[in-house]
Amino acid sequence: MASCMLLLASCGAHISNPEDEHGDAGPGMWSTPAAVTVAATPAIEDDVTLTSNALEMVYAIADPMTGKKDLYHTSRTAIGAPWAAAVPLPFDRTASSEEAPRFSVDDQTLYFASDRAADDGNLDIYAVSHTASATTPWGKPGPVAPLTTALTEKWLSPCSDGHYVVVQSTAAGDTDLFEGVLGGGAPAPIDALNTTKSETGAFLTADCLTLYFASFQVTPERIFVAHRARVGAPWQPPVEVDEFRIAGGNAGAQEDPWLSADGRTFALASDAAGTKDIYLSTR
Question: Which of 10, 177, 233, 263 has a CA between 20 and 30 Å from the CA of residue 149?
């Protein structure tokens, strides 16, 4: 648990106002996760990610009939300010699924998974440029080779030196964590972290040394964290993250972890309130 605590401290005081995220949580103490109002509706909301400064958020809303997802965007002017009404991203397609977003370290690229090549459920990785202050803030999406295979590829999470972790399906029918280099060959499985159950929701910190992910090795699904000393060094055994218990919720799943660049905002999705919603915790 000592390695886990490098980034995660014990759960702190509850934030009474969901939008006042730095209110009563002291340094080093995580607040009780609070639902993000615009992303906590009766719809199924998950697949959350934010820009490194925690001022823009992208998440998915799932169609309850087809399971296909659409990506939505919301923003705020400052930490603690209200989130704007969420709007669909302009490159979203009705016939396809867009999901599992992650921003690049400089926030200028959004990676996401989509089956838009054939609308057949086979997810590949796509990238789209992003400039928050531009009149047209989103570019045109394009596929990211070599992550366009017959396998399912999602949750590409890059770090500062071009390394990335991605979630990929396996012959056994589950999903595992893989690591590669942008512009390089096929990624390799991270055997030290993969189990016989599915691992998903990868988030790699900018220094490439800490990896958050969700795993079905426990029931319900929970978030785990693993560390390594340097790129190329072995990953230490993962530790279950237990700091983000949701007040008043049932024993719901926790997934889709994300951590801000300053280490003070943590995002996740959970069905603790009944359907999946987006939650933020701060310290």
Answer: 233
On the question of a cis peptide bond just before residue 146, with omega within 30 degrees of 0, the verdict is yes
Query: CB burial class (10 A; 0-12, 13-18, 19+) of residue 136?
Result: exposed
User: 22 pLDDT exceeds 90?
Assistant: no
* CA 128 to chain CA centroid, nearest Å: 17
The answer to whether 195 and 217 have CB atoms below 8 angstroms apart is yes
Q: Token digits for 187?
A: 């990624």
Cβ-based neighbour number of residue 197 at 10 Å: 16
Residue-wise pLDDT for 46-65, tens only, equals 999 999 999 999 999 999 99
Q: What is the DSSP string of 212-267?
A: EEEETTSSS-EEEEEE-SSTTSPPPPPEE--S-PPTT--S--EEEEEE-TTS-EEE
| Cβ proximity of 161 and 116 under 8 Å | no
Say if residue 8's pLDDT is above 60.
no
